[in-house]
Amino acid sequence: AAAAVCGSHAMTAASTSIAPVVEDDIDDLEDLGGAETADGVRVTRDLPPVVTLRAKKRSASRVAVGGGGANTDGVGHRSRANDSDGRGARSDDDNDEEGDDVPEILGSSKPAGASAVPGVAKVHVKTFGCSHNHSDSEFMAGQLGAYGYDLVTDPDDADVWVVNTCTVKNPSQSAMNTVITKGKAQGKKLVIAGCVPQGDKKAKELEDLSLIGVTQIDRIVDVVERTLAGDAVRLLEKKPLPSLDLPKVRRNEHVEILPLSTGCLGQCTYCKTKHARGELGSYSPEALVQRVQTAIAEGVTEIWLSSEDTGAYGIDLGTDITRLLKDLTAVLPADGSCMLRLGMTNPPYILAHLDAVAEAMHHPGVYAFLHIPVQAGSDAVLDRMKREYVVADFCTVADALLAKVPGMTIATDVICGFPGETQEDWEKTMALCRKYEFVELHLSQFYPRPGTPAARMKRVDTKEVKRRSRELTAYIESYRPHDKLVGTTQRVWVTDVAKDKVSLVGHTKSYVQVLLPGGEENRARLMGKSAEVRIIDAHRWHVTGDLIEVHDRTAPRPEAPPAPKYSSPAAEAWDLKTRKRKEAAARFDWVNEKGNNACSTCGAPEGETCGGDKEGTGTSDAETAMTRKDESLGTWMFRALTTAPENRLEWILTAGVFLGLLGIMLTWVASHLSKIASGVSAIASMTRTDR
Fold first, then answer.
1. Which residue has the higher pLDDT, 55 or 640?
2. Over residues 76-87, mean pLDDT
């Protein structure tokens, strides 16, 4: 797993499906719910990438041949199968800039005369990485299912694979390469999504494959259609966050994964995810509250807040996590039937919000659990990592929360063998772990990621790194933090089935993992509900319990509220910019059709009276024409100053005229400067003479 390296990757280390200290795990990085059975056999949750879903068949009017034109997908999103018509492909180096949302078509492997029926295919979605990645996969699966595609869990049965990737560590990217190689060998169509193509689009493994960026998941239908038609598409442009109101297929129907934001404010020297997710971009509080209300109305039992850094939420919007937590807890059911789990947070930005975090954890609907990566117990190592805090800051956060919320669980991460880490540095890390005896700790050996500053640093000897890793692993497994729960009665929220296909998996208020007896009867009674449980045995990573009583939901679950029009201010600005660009393009095309001298609004030939707004642009000739007959230059200049220019040409002409006039004025002043000076001197002399 990769929780030690990237914010949201760390979010669920507290319930990792295998012992959190096991190294080099390249399975799904948030395969939660693992534990040992009484006979010592390790069990893990069996979470498929998506649940099987067969969407309703689309009507014949929506079926097009050959990747077809501007179809709608049934959920309000256009399927732009011909976006590149006449507009050309975007350069690979341009996709980080704002501009037209046009995919780059690298080529087509479709035989002459081949055709494809949109939405008629089987799709397998495979996800690597953090909870944010899994949320993205759920949104992509939802759109594909709503469009008519069949989502299948068996990759061999699929026509196209959507592989959502993780770039946080070498093993996760190697796992992606393995999937790509296997898919090519089987002749599958491949769409690569997530952090790898966004952060390393020129990787050799991605050549001739369709790529979709982390902010472009709302166009997955377009990309899959073109890929099935034989095209290799690249859609990597950075744009505002996709809407939270997109169709969604949850991998676990009882758990809503809610991304608060993307990116972060840090500059960690080892982090590759920053290259993909970029700077902090937060969803608006209104959009997040609406999504929580919708998830509650749909019957979920848990809501996981996902973020690269929860403490930094909202800084880009002028708000903060304190306000968001108050807004979210206000809409949680009063009976505690739906639990909120806070996301990972780094120490620097959460320091100012410790009281708010503690207050939220006292709410009956919020788990007393927080993941705070420390990464190292040495200030010197943290400085080389550019973590922007010292060990004392971490201790301040941990001590304050443990004092304010007794019994809470703190999970953390440690990177072992970071470049320059001395034995003294390592001893400080061990001392910190001994001080807190973390219930959950994820240990990761350092992996140099290409393009990061840490990759150029001198590495610690591999044998020494492994020795240190074994030392910390042995210590973490040497104590049993859950023994104190034996004999107590705990309320447990049950959301999943263990990998043994029998045991049920739940969590206490402090997010301690509980295994309960399974079977069809218990599954029907308990799944998605809470229950009173007597803890009968404790193990290192979990406890086991017997059922006492099942809690019925007493608080009503209201209907889902309408979604806000925009998920963030950036999305609103982007939409306005896009609409203006399209309107300008439409007017340009209209004028071209009528002739170069035609009216820019109605297309009337030169010399004829303007017909006003003809194409539904909402503007008239009086608002858009560059110049008018019998209009003086001064009048035109005044109008240009008081009217927003409609296209780049008008900007250029306006700026050119003003700069020209300014140049003439400055030239005149310079040429007459001596005469002006002489006149001023003469006036001064006359004044002195009069005196």
1. 640
2. 33
User: Residue 586 to residues 583, 616, 646: CA-CA distances in angstroms?
Assistant: 5, 10, 12
Strand partners for 415: 444
Q: How far apart are CA 53 and CA 55, in angstroms?
A: 6
Q: Which residue has the higher pLDDT, 78 or 299?
A: 299
**What does the DSSP 8-state code read for residue 468?**
H
Measured between alpha carbons, how far is residue 489 from residues 300, 484, 514, 529, 550 in Å? Answer: 24, 12, 12, 16, 13
> CA 239 to CA 572: how far, in whole Å?
11
DSSP 289: H
Residue type, 315: I
d(CA 538, CA 428): 30
Task: Answer yes or no: are the C-beta atoms of 258 and 305 closer than 8 Å.
Answer: yes
Containing H/E element for 445?
A: strand 440-445
| Strand (E) or helix (H) holding 232 | strand 231-235
Rounded to whole angstroms, the Cα distance separating 143 from 145 reads: 5
3-state helix, strand, coil in the chain (%, to 5): 40, 20, 45
| Per-residue pLDDT tens digits for 200-230 | 888 888 888 999 999 899 999 999 999 999 9
Give residue 607's pLDDT. Answer: 54
Q: How many CB atoms lie under 10 A from the CB of residue 244?
A: 22
Q: In this model, does residue 665 exceed pLDDT 90?
A: no
Q: Helices 648-671 and 673-690: crossing angle, nearest 10°?
A: 50
- Burial class from Cβ neighbours inside 10 Å (0-12, 13-18, 19+) for residue 104 reads buried
pLDDT at 566: 67
Q: Which residues pair with 588 in a beta bridge?
A: none
Q: Which parts of 78-162 fold into alpha helices (H)? A: 131-147
Structure tokens at 178: 């393995």
Query: What are the C-alpha distances in Å from 220 to residues 68, 87, 279, 351?
Result: 15, 21, 23, 38
pLDDT digits (tens, 9 = 90+) for 151-199: 999 999 999 999 999 888 777 888 888 999 999 999 999 999 989 888 8
Cα–Cα distance list, 573 to 507, 578, 579, 612, 671 (Å) = 42, 9, 10, 28, 47
Euclidean distance between CA atoms 587 and 603, whole angstroms: 9
Burial 372-410 (b: 16+ CB within 10 A, else e): bbbbbbbbebbebbebbbbbebbbebbebbeeebeebbb
Number of helices (H), then strands (E), belonging to the chain: the values are: 19, 25
- Crossing angle of the two packed helices 648-671 and 633-642, in degrees rounded to 10: 120
Q: Exposed, middle or buried: residue 449 (CB in 10 Å: 0-12, 13-18, 19+)? A: buried
Structure tokens at 261: 């934001």
Buried b (16+ CB within 10 A) or exposed e, 658-675: eeeeeeeeeeeeeeeeee
The model carries a pTM of 0.69
The strand pairing partners of 193, in sequence order, are 164, 212
Provide the 10 A C-beta neighbour count for residue 188.
17
- Which region among 252-266, 335-349, 574-588 has the lowest average model confidence (pLDDT)? 574-588
CA atoms within 13 A on the CB side of 638: 5
Torsion, Cα 362 366 368 370, to 10 degrees, reads: -130
Q: Name the pLDDT band for 558 (thresholds 50, 70, 90).
A: confident
